[in-house]
Amino acid sequence: MIYENIQPAYFVSRPNRFIAEVRLAGPEGPQGEILRVHVKNTGRCRELLKEGSRVILSRAANPNRKTAYDLIGVYREDGPFFNIDSQAANQVTGEWLRDLNYFDEIRPEYRIGNSRIDFWMKRGDQPYLLEVKGCTLVREGIGYFPDAPTERGIKHLKELAGLAGQGYKCAVGFVIQTEGVTKVLPNMETHPAFGQALKEAEEAGVNVLYLPCRVGEDFLRIDEKTLWPDQ
To answer: Which residues pair with 57 in a beta bridge?
Structure first.
């Protein structure tokens, strides 16, 4: 995926999980008044969004919106750039699935029973289900998920575990939204129940995929060398 009309800025504060305050970047650093922008990630992102951090904004397509920009990425103190757009994980996964040319049919936002799974795919007579999680928390070269408790994430894992016994090949995919990381572990410190649910899902036959990305200020894509496990 490609972002249009990006703008560098500097992070000031985060009054709530939806809003950040920033100063636009000038030739010699922060300049101008403080702007309020929309944060495209409701997670904590405490390791990333620190006062003075250089961030990347994308101008909103709707000129009448209250916030003119979305905050989509941030440079960590030690240098790496992180895309923190939580909506991007599903979009780049859809692009990746299509580019694989492996599945005969792909349907996003697939309803099954009382659930909605991110992707339903089919190859021949075999149906697949894939739930996607974006990972932006990295420590010592390893990704961790989640960065905040997620009951919804546990629900998804339990749903996949049940469906894995009904003829579906099920998987959960962790989209790693920075470069240089190839593995994601459950964040037992923040939400041990998620880690337990992930373990139980694997035991039930759910495949865990690590999806490393190519990441830039204005683009995000899953590494083209990444294949589906059956390939």
So the answer is: 7, 71
pLDDT by residue, tens only, the chain of 231 residues = 999 899 999 999 999 999 999 999 987 778 888 999 999 998 889 899 999 999 999 999 898 899 999 999 999 988 899 999 999 999 999 999 999 999 999 999 999 877 899 999 999 999 999 999 999 999 999 999 999 899 999 999 999 999 998 999 999 999 999 999 999 999 999 999 999 999 999 999 999 999 999 999 999 999 999 999 988
The Cα 228–Cα 24 span in angstroms is 41
Tokens 């960065």 locate to 147
Distance CA 75, CA 9 (A): 11
Domains of the chain: 6-83 (2.40.50.580), 88-222 (3.40.1350.60)
Q: Could you tell me if 179 and 80 are in contact, meaning their C-beta atoms sit under 8 angstroms apart?
A: yes
8 φ/ψ angles, rounded to the nearest 5 degrees: -75, 150
DSSP-derived secondary structure letter, 2: B
Chain Cα centroid distance, residue 217:
15
Kindly list the distances between the CA atom of residue 119 and the CA atoms of 70, 71, 98, in Å, as whole numbers in the listed order: 26, 26, 12
Phi-psi region of 29 (alpha: psi -120 to 50; beta: other; left: phi over 0): left
Long-range CB contacts (within 8 A, 24+) of 29-33: none
Q: Which amino acid is at 179?
A: E
